[in-house]
Write a sequence for this structure.
């Protein structure tokens, strides 16, 4: 399972084409609600969502992982809520106002009623990352499970983190940018449920191991670099990356990523001036600061996943392990769009209980 933890400023984006709240019925007449919020961490931001639909019965789990069914009318009874496993509950905490729900529907209702208390606040939002295959594209959907409003003196850094199990092999490593840029491109794979194939599939995840801030003259920096590389069977020797990954073998390790989704700030310099302005500086008539914009300058909008750490607990205490899958099985289980009447519109991961036809309502206009 892929999880996320976003810390930043929460807002409710709204425009003529995009609404933070949607309430409607599916074609089968089932009422549903969707809420979308934006989390901004520095120059980066991400949209997270919560989808809820009314059902006669709520299918969930207890703390012993037993499947249980709860009547819709009983969903807010405290004793009933307490029988549901914590990982199947939804929380929205605003200071001392702590609230637990067992349906997305009720969590959305609470968010709707307390929108003003959430808007503009520093929060931590956690949940799961699901793959959405639609119209020939695969995108990430950040499904909310918990929203915690942080206190004003909370010192947590604003950052968009993703944690996931990752699979890789010797072909995953691309060191083409290492010599000049000190960046290592690593193609990992994550697992996600493919609702069309009704099976778990491997999805590609292109990541960057950015070492541009490492001081290669400092032994402590080099030791840290070598330690991290060793977790995925790599080494740093004489300025180059040595690939020690065994061929025709799939390895697995939990990784931690930082999602960068935005435009980075660009430092102002003379390259951004006209020839006339440059001449004014050369003649001493003006200085560079005279032309410096009041607001920051931003470059091209980009999305990247930066590899920052590994989870080396339990079975991964010595780094990546050999995965319980052959290369042939791995390749066979890679996600691909299926030919279904020559259209890709059907390939969408829809919430449990909805048909592809219902999903037309949910995603139209997005």
């Amino acid at each position: 399972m892929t999880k996320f933890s976003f810390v930043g400023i929460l807002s409710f984006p709204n425009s003529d084409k995009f609404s933070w709240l949607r309430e409607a019925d599916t074609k089968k007449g089932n009422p549903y609600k969707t809420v979308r919020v934006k989390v901004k961490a520095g120059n980066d931001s991400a949209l997270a969502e919560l989808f809820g639909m009314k059902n006669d019965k709520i299918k969930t789990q207890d703390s012993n992982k037993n499947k249980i069914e709860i009547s819709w009318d009983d969903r807010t009874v405290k004793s009933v809520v307490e029988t549901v496993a914590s990982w199947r509950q939804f929380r929205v905490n605003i200071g001392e106002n702590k609230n637990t729900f067992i349906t997305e529907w009720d969590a959305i209702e609470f968010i709707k009623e307390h929108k003003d208390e959430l808007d503009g606040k520093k929060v931590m939002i956690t949940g799961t990352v699901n793959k959405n295959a639609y119209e020939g594209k695969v995108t990430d959907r950040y499904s909310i499970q918990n929203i915690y409003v942080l206190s004003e003196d909370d010192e947590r850094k604003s950052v968009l983190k993703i944690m996931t199990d990752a699979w890789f092999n010797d072909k995953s490593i691309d060191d083409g940018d290492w010599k000049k840029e000190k960046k290592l491109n690593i193609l990992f794979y994550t697992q996600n449920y493919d609702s069309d194939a009704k099976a778990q599939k491997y999805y590609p995840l292109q990541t960057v191991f950015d070492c541009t801030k490492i001081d290669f003259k400092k032994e402590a920096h080099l030791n840290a670099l070598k330690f991290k590389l060793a977790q995925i069977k790599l080494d740093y020797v004489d300025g180059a990356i040595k690939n020690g990954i065994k061929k025709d073998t799939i390895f697995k390790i939990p990784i931690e990523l930082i999602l960068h989704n935005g435009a980075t700030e660009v430092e102002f310099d003379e390259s951004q001036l006209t020839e006339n302005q440059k001449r004014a500086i050369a003649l001493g008539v003006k200085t560079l600061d005279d032309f410096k914009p009041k607001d920051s300058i931003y470059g091209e909008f980009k999305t990247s996943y930066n590899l920052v750490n590994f989870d080396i607990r339990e079975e991964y205490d010595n780094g990546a392990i050999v995965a319980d899958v052959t290369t042939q099985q791995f390749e066979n289980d890679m996600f691909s769009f299926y030919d279904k009447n020559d259209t890709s519109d059907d390939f969408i991961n829809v919430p449990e209980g909805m048909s592809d036809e219902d999903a037309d309502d949910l995603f139209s206009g997005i």
